[in-house]
Specification:
Structural class: alpha+beta
Largest sheet: 4 strands, antiparallel
Number of helices: 3
Mean pLDDT: 90
Order of helices and strands: HHEEEHEEEE
Low-confidence stretches: none
Helix content: 40-55%
Number of strands: 7
Distance between the termini: 66 Å
Length: about 150
């Protein structure tokens, strides 16, 4: 009786290794640059948070009806100017923005994803009047966040 052999031949093993190498060479560049996409998504989340906090604070201002200098959102005092959050107020109203690096210059708040990517940023500019809401810049381009 012939003896049955078990296992893979050397050619089969080499072909599997070659196929895995090709797949890795094609897939690796796609996953390599996910950090840039994450920074852009983080800035989009910051925009949504800031806009939401501003709208909620302005709603509380309108409900109060007495032109308060601040409103309380979830236990945090949010300072207002022209019925909308100030730079300091929006940071408090947006939950502190603890995962972001922020800088203020007068009536402008600049939010960056981390200290090493300052060009990947958004800005919040305080309202200049009760009829003009604050402005929040658009999400940064992918190229500025790499």
């Amino acid at each position: 009786m012939p003896k049955l052999q078990k296992g893979f031949t050397m050619i089969e093993l080499v072909m599997v290794i070659v196929i895995l190498g090709i797949l890795a060479a094609v897939a690796l560049p796609r996953f390599y640059d996910l950090q840039t996409d994450a920074r852009v998504a983080k800035m989009q989340a910051a925009i949504a948070t800031i806009k939401s906090a501003s709208a909620i604070a302005h709603s509380a201002y309108l409900v109060a009806g007495t032109n308060p200098a601040s409103v309380t959102l979830e236990g945090q005092a949010v300072a207002l100017s022209n019925g909308y959050p100030t730079v300091v107020g929006i940071v408090a109203g947006a939950g502190g923005l603890g995962d972001y690096v922020t800088a203020t210059a007068g009536t402008v708040l600049t939010v960056t994803p981390d200290a090493t990517h300052s060009s990947c940023s958004i800005t919040y500019t305080e309202a200049t009047s009760t009829t003009s809401p604050p402005t929040v810049s658009a999400a940064p381009a992918r190229a500025t966040c790499s």
